[in-house]
């Protein structure tokens, strides 16, 4: 990103138990659905939310400790509410491997 | 093959118990991820792009049918019904959940398997020749030595926190099918004046700085085998850089220190520790050798082989490409190709694993190998059984007659699975396989090894491909560089040379097709292979034509 532009970004991590890709919501909670992720457009806010991701506890179950592993910021492109990932790697991470359909999501990227 | 002793079984049981506790502590939050990471890596568990990945050790690539059947069970029970065989003769499961790992490890322990030291800064799986014990050109079976190395290196007190990973390969044949010169330590069994010993090379490797290993001992007597290997690692353990993981491998230490200086330090260390090995290693080796010599291959008539071979074109092609002569007359070495055109290289479904396990039990004295070419080898198949074996493989979709041919592609998991990757390798491998099947040129092209890596770490061994492809990222898009002329046999080890600027995802398959057409036009006759033609004419004829057809845009001045 250029220094005078920022966002949109979301906070993403991996779920400790499954390794699945998860995103931080506004609640804050965690979701596997990018459309439920809290989108941040301010640099200072992104630092705050990243910190939130790093201290998150009690994610999918009240009985377990943190399910979050290695939160970081992921850049998005949003065009008329259509969300896509700036980095191809992030798209792959979200949609799943391109050699098999493993029931994650339909693979949309050729 | 080797069977676990009571000590082995107890060790693995205890190791699994320890890791179960570590997993529980991590899940409950008593261990941070930073604390847990080195522990899970020591037990072969990665956190990858989509999920965890468990890398199970297949020591020097050798398995029996019970073990392969258990891997199939694990794939069904805790994964998604398949496994991936790697270029280091291991198997990877791409989708386990963390809570299931202890159960998986228990399941492995039940058949004498584990995931110990398949990751982390330790001595990794010892790799070897998939034809070991069967090859015509073999001086001595390297597998007992590989097993001795495995026992010695597992949980070695001095070598659990090395500067970086450490890889050892060993071969017993003149034709080096283990690529020993591209390992941290490469060991070649030699015969000198009737005495058995080893040529020891050090500091070979691929990755971002590919290097052919330096021979530091031309002939090491076999009784000095283990103390000498320990000396090499002991010296590097002190010198290897710990401030920069990209400069920590022994190949860098050798370059920075100088190979002569390093060799002198190794010899000094060897003198210090040699007598502390009081012969226990030699005794252990002799005990191991007994286990490896227990297979007695029975003499049998050829049966209907000759007629079947004459009558059946498909069987003839399969024998030509997938069957290798055995050192015992009447027997053969069969390579089962896991490179069905359009499939992911190295992947096998649980059903296929069970099927091949049964075939190994029935036709190969219950023994299989995983090759670093990501295929399965049945090392002891009598010629009279080949047609029945072929027929069953055909029914299972595993009779692709393409071993060593252009569609026998080696590919790492790439960006589809690996956190470190910069581009996808699997879709490219699949597309190339289908393309050359559709062109119906494979048999005409002959031996041509394509190897694809999804990043500069080179897990697909692209530096050693006759055509090697490296996937990178440029401006957010996948880009592929091509290298030509890689070769891994000891006498003529060669690192592939870069063709030139890279190609986009849509260009790379046409580029490879063009390279093949250039070869076909330049070769002297049908017998001259791609590699032979390349060596004769050099890279220029290839690069010139390629960049005429696929010109690269020049950067603005």
Structural account:
The complex is a heterodimer of chains A (110) and B (557). In chain A, strands 3-2-1-4-5 form a five-stranded antiparallel β-sheet, sandwiched between helices. Chain A has one domain. Chain A is built from two helices and five strands; from the N terminus they run E-E-E-H-E-E-H. Chain A is 19% helix and 26% strand. By secondary structure, chain A is an alpha+beta fold. The radius of gyration of chain A is 14 Å and the shape is globular. Chain B is an alpha+beta fold. Chain B is built from 18 helices and 21 strands. In chain B, strands 16, 17, 18, 19, 20 and 21 form a six-stranded mixed β-sheet that branches. The interface between A and B is medium-sized, with 25 and 29 residues.
Question: What is the structure about, briefly put?
Answer:
The complex is a heterodimer of chains A (110) and B (557). Chain A is an alpha+beta fold and 110 residues long. Chain A contains two helices and five strands; from the N terminus they run βββαββα.
